[in-house]
UniProtKB/TrEMBL annotation:
Biased composition (Low complexity): 7-16
Protein name per its UniProtKB record: Non-ribosomal peptide synthetase
GO CC aspect terms: cytosol; enterobactin synthetase complex
GO molecular-function terms, A-Z: 2,3-dihydroxybenzoate-serine ligase activity; phosphopantetheine binding
Region (Disordered): 1-20
Length: 127
């Protein structure tokens, strides 16, 4: 750690506000309960309602679990930005895993290094 980082860490305010935990999966489920037909995700290819999103997330989470993903594992997401990426991210969280964002636009060498460093259980991609 550089001197600058040490000084910055030491100077942190002890009175910094506490950020309450936020459960994005619970928030999406609650919104789906309240407004199932409302658009949850919209991109250039179309839209997904909250009810559809919850169903897709649950289905993909089941596939991940059946594929050996367990709580605490990492799953690589090599997907373009859009509805599929958000759905996959939520499914990974539902399966109890963490995700490794892998931008499909990155050079192959960078992606290989990221995969070597993180060793995800599996990688989801649309390729």
């Amino acid at each position: 750690m550089s001197d600058m980082r040490i000084a910055g860490a030491a100077g942190a305010s002890p009175a910094s506000p506490e950020v309450p935990p936020f459960d994005v999966l619970a928030a999406v489920a609650e919104q789906a309960r309240r407004t199932p037909g409302a658009p949850a995700l919209i991109d250039a290819t179309g839209q997904t309602s909250y009810a559809e999103l919850v169903a897709e997330v649950d289905r993909l989470a089941d596939v991940l679990t059946a594929s050996g993903v367990r709580s605490g594992d990492l799953v690589g997401l090599c997907l373009p930005r859009g509805r599929a990426a958000v759905t996959a991210l939520l499914a990974v969280l539902r399966a109890g895993a963490g995700y490794v964002p892998l931008d499909p636009g990155y050079p192959a060498a960078r992606l290989a290094l990221m995969l070597e460093d993180t060793r995800p259980r599996l990688v989801l991609t649309d390729a």
